[in-house]
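#struct-help
A.M.: can someone run this one for me? Single chain, 449 residues.
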Amino acid sequence: MKEIGKSRRKHKDNKVVELDLSLLHPRGLHGVTPASWWMGVRWTATDDLNLIANFNVKLNALEKDLIANIFSNGSQQQPLRDAWFSIGMTDEAAFMAVLSNSALHMDSRQYGGTKVAGETTTAVIYQTAAVALVNERLTTITQQDSIENLDAVIGAVSGLVCNADIRGSWLDWHTHLQGMNQLIKLRGGIDKLSGNTNLRLTVSWVEIQGALMFDISPIYPLPDQCYYPNGKPLGVRDAQDMVSMRAAWKSVFVRENDTRWLDIFEEINALSHQSFESPIPIAGRIQLDHGRETGAWSLLMIHGLLRLRLDPQILLPKYFRIQEACRLGTLLYMVRVWRYFGVAPVTSEAILAKLQAILYNDDGDWGRLWTFYLWILYMGAIEAQDGPLETWFLDRIASVSMLYGIEKWEESMAIVRKILWYACIFDANHATFQERIELRFKSCLQSPS
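D.P.: on it. Structure tokens below:
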């Protein structure tokens, strides 16, 4: 744990204003709303002036800007803010990490949430202060420390994990995550955090953010707050569509009974419809508010996809390839969903590279699942726009479409839209994509057979 933060450079000449921790409490902002069923405290601010006027912490001008940024529209920091900001308000080291992360978010906004942030001087100053405070605490912390002290350090380190994720640093993210894991073991294990709802949610939040970026399986299960109050989503968008899909799946995987990906996809299908298209029914208002306000259901779905690990030693090569491609393609869909819900930055280079590698030598013969193959290729192509893999995905879309007798991109697109597609998620930059895919279709038609 003493290695936490040593990979980061230190700026000894820059000083940060010390905080009066007696002023840190969860009602420092104007307008704490009633708790929702899944979150104990709701932080809101009517405007920046009210925010600063009611913030009971001594801040300099820069720090006021960083806090105001957290609560500004489009700051990309709304998801699970009720949890992690509450943790940041309980400890000075955690608060320094919150300020640093806010500075990183300000930098990442210029990339539209698709690229990691650069290291600004402001971010480094506060991140260095957080690391110094954490390392000082780690020299004396023991299992006999009070629960409050242990939780405070875990919360501060969770801020460092998030910081490394925003910067896209695998080394720092892994280092800080391992440090957080050791502290949680010292606390008695992840279940011991269940009494601290905000901390428990924050731990899973920062872990899954990095796990998605690098496509690795999360260590911890999700806390109870992330599950549906009634155990299941409200209903599938179109039951007949899912019956047809399961029949197609069974026709390909005749001897395989593993439907884990299919089960997750069915829930994503239903929850996407509820969040992006359907009106809110009275009976399901609480559940839908939960999803629409926070995108909390997306956390559950991403967690399930990341933990779904297939064994290539057990499955036949073709079966493994199809199931893994389905998992990766659905993760790319969830990347877009997460950005829609305000999570940023969310990068997908690792997932795209894995998807291209697993499909590189694929012959396109997916039987009745070929339409899902096409959908997966579209997920890859849209996410790879302006990147090194864009041409490969576009070429594959055109060739697979024509393999199944589709010679117009509109017909290909119509098939994809029937599977899982929402305008609010994909259509913002679809015009440019449309031009490029049209050119690929024309090129394939003109090429000699």
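A.M.: thanks! Residues 317-340 form the longest helix (24 residues).
D.P.: also worth noting: Residues 21-215 form one domain.
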